[in-house]
Amino acid sequence: MNIHERDWTTTRTSAASAIYGALSYLDENAFSLIDVMGLTGHAFRMNIDPKKVHPAGPTAFPGGYILRRNLCNLGFTSCLADPAAPVPPDKLQKTFSIIQESIDHGIPAISYDLFSTEFGLIYGYDDDSQEFYAKDPSNDGVITYADFSEAKGFIFITTISEKLPHSKYEMLRMALDMIVDHARGREWNHIFNGNFVMGLDGFEAWIKVFEKGTVDPLGNAYNAAVIADARQFAVKFLEELTMKWNGTNVVERGVRKLAGEAREFYIVSAEAFEQLTRLFPFPNGGIPNDHNSSNKAIELLRNAEAAEHEGIKVIEKLLQFMKGYYSEKWIY
Amino acid sequence: MIKEFVLDSLVPPIRQDEQDGISNEKLVNRARGGDQEAFSELVRQYRAKAYGWANSVAKDTFLAEDIVQDALLRAFLKLGTLMDSKKFLPWLRQIVRNEAYMKMRRGGPFRNEQPVSGIQTNTLHKDVVDFSNIDSILSFVAYSSSEKARVEGPEEHLIRLEMMESIQTLLHCLSPREKKIFEAHFFEAISPAELASLFDTSTANIYNVLSRSRVKIRKEQIRLSIHAYTKKRADKGLTRKKILPTPPTL
To answer: In whole angstroms, what is the distance from residue A72 CA to residue A169 CA?
Structure first.
C-alpha cells in the first residue's frame, strides 16, 4: 500500500475506528481518524503473543481501561459496562440502559465481539423486536437482546458521556504519555497474566517465535497487517504535527521539530511492516515457518525494532518537553 | 420380598415411646446399608409423623393411610440415594408429600379440583415419580424455609423464598426428564453417579443433562429478565425504538 494514496478514514485497528465512528455522530467533531489513531496511541501499539503470534494480540488489552483513557485524551468522559458472563439480570439491565441512553443522545455505544472479535458500534435498538442494530468490521445487522446477553466471557460497552475539552497541548501530552508507557511495557494489563508482550519488547518476542518455527500463519499475518496499517497512521500523525502546529512559540516549534525527527524513524518501521505484509499477506498468511521466509521476516522485524527504539527515544524527549517546556532563551 | 417386609413392618401400632434409645443417624446409616431391622425401627418412629404429613394434604384418613404405605415403600427403595443421613426426616417428608400430591391428582376425594392452595398443577405428568414434581419440592423447600425462618430470621427466609420462586419459574423451560434430574441433583444433593443408576443411564449422560439444563435455565433467566426490562421501559413510556444512521465504514 502506498502511504500517499491510502484511505485515511479506515483502519485495521477496530478500537480506533469504533471511537472515530462514534465521534462522527457529534455535531462538532474536530477529530480525523489520523488524530484519533495518534492521540489514543493506537497508531503506536504492538502486542505480541510469545508462543505463536496469536491473532488475538492486537485486541488483547484491557478494553475498559484503554478506551476510557483514549476518550479522556480526546476530551470526553465515558461510561463502562464490562460484567463477566454469565451476566446477572440486574447488571444486564443496567448495561442495556447505558446503551439506550447513549443512542437516545444520538451517539452509538462502543462494544466488542458483536459479529467478530473486534470493536464495533451499537447504533440502534428496538424494544418491541428486542434487537440491537450494530456494525463491526465484519458485518452490519441486528443482534437480538438475548444473543447480546449470551456473551462469551464478558459483555463490553463503552459510551461517550460528556465533552470535557482540554487544550491541544494537554491532549498531545496525554497521548505521548500513553504511547511511551505502552512502548516501555508499563501499561496496565495484568489481567492477561503476561500472555502477551507489549511495546518494543514485542519485537524480540516475535523474532523468537520465528526462530522457534512456531508461527501461526493467520496470527502472524494479522498482527503484521494491523501494525503496518497503524504505523502508517503514526507517520501521518507525526507529519501533521509538523505541519499543523505553527511556529508562533517555543512549544509549537518544539513539537514541530521533535515530531519531524520521530517521523523519520516511523517511516522506516512502517516500510518494514509493509514488506512484512507482502511476505505474509492477510488472511492466507504465506509460509512463515519456511526457512527463507522466516529469515527475511526476522531481518525486517530487526529493522523496524531498531527504528522504533530510536523513535521512542525522540517521543520520550517530546513528552519531557511537553511536561516542562524548555527555556526559550538560555544564556549560560 | 422387600415389599412384603415393608408392609409387614407397617402393621404394628405406632409406638412413639420407642423413639429414644438408638440414635436416628445410626439407624439411617444401617438402613441405607440394607439393614431391614433398622428401617423397620425408623418406620415405627416416623409413621405417625408421616401420617400427619399425608393427612395434611389428603384431609382423608384412609387416603392418608394409603399414601403413607406407598411412600414408605418408596423411601425404603430409594434410601440408598439419601446422601446425608442427618437429612433423613426432611427427605422422608418430601417423599410422603410427593406421594400425597400424586395421589390427589390421580383422583383423590377432590377429583380434578386443586386440593391444596398454592400448589401449581400445570406440570402434570402421567409417569410422575418422586423427584419429578418441582411444585411439591418447592413447596417443601419453602415450607422448610418458613420453619427455618423462626430460627434464622426473616431476611434469609425472604431470600430463600425469592430464590425458590425464581427457580420455579425458570424450570419450566426444561424437558420433563431434565427437570427430574435437575431437581434431584439441585434439591436433594444427589450425586451424578447415584442419579445415573436412579435414571438408568451413564454418569456422563447425567453430567450432560445437568450442564445442558444449567444453560437452558440461564437462557430462560436472561429471557425473562429482558422481558421484564422492556416491559418496565414500556410502562414508563420510554422510547421503544431508535435507530441512528448507519455508522461509517468500520
So the answer is: 14
